[in-house]
Amino acid sequence: MIKIKKRGTKLHLILVSMVVILALLQIIFANRLTEAGKNLRKLEEESASLEAENSKLKTEIAVLGSIERLKSQTEKLGFVPQTSIINLTIQKPIAFKF
Fold first, then answer.
1. Which of 26, 28, 31, 56 yields a CA-CA distance of 20 to 30 A from 72?
2. What pLDDT is stored for residue 7 in this prediction?
3. 7 Cβ contact list (under 8 Å, min separation 6)
4. Do residues 82 and 76 lie in contact, with contact meaning Cβ atoms separated by under 8 Å?
5. CA atoms of 63 and 57, how far apart (whole Å)
6. Quick one: which H or E segment has residue 77?
């Protein structure tokens, strides 16, 4: 009878320890999954923020590069329309003449 009791105790101890180990593993994996979810949500929010900023900057580039704005800026700076064309010709250097 005593041997059966010891054997049952060992089996009981093994089963309990396996249950505890499996419960700890489940907690660890659930924690890692939660952390990964938080990181993913943070990255998605950052991505959305960057996309909104990118869209805003594209609009700003379009506004700043418009022909009407460039024309008004050149007039403010004192530029005038070109009235005549001047052609400049470059003579070949003496080193090229034989």
1. 56
2. 64
3. none
4. no
5. 10
6. none
Residues 69, 63 contacting (CB under 8 angstroms): yes
User: Phi/psi at 80 (nearest 5 deg)?
Assistant: -125, 155
Structure tokens at 17: 């320890």
Distance in angstroms (rounded) separating the CA atoms of residues 56 and 62: 10
For 1-98, where are the alpha helices, taking DSSP H only? 2-64, 67-76
* Dihedral (CA of 19, 22, 28, 31) sign: negative
Token reading at 51: 């996309």
Could you tell me the CA-to-CA distances from 53 to 33, 34, 43, 57, 59 in Å, in that order?
Answer: 30, 29, 15, 6, 10
Distance CA 53, CA 97 (A): 59
pLDDT tens-digit readout, 30-82: 999 999 999 999 999 999 999 999 999 999 999 988 999 888 899 899 988 88
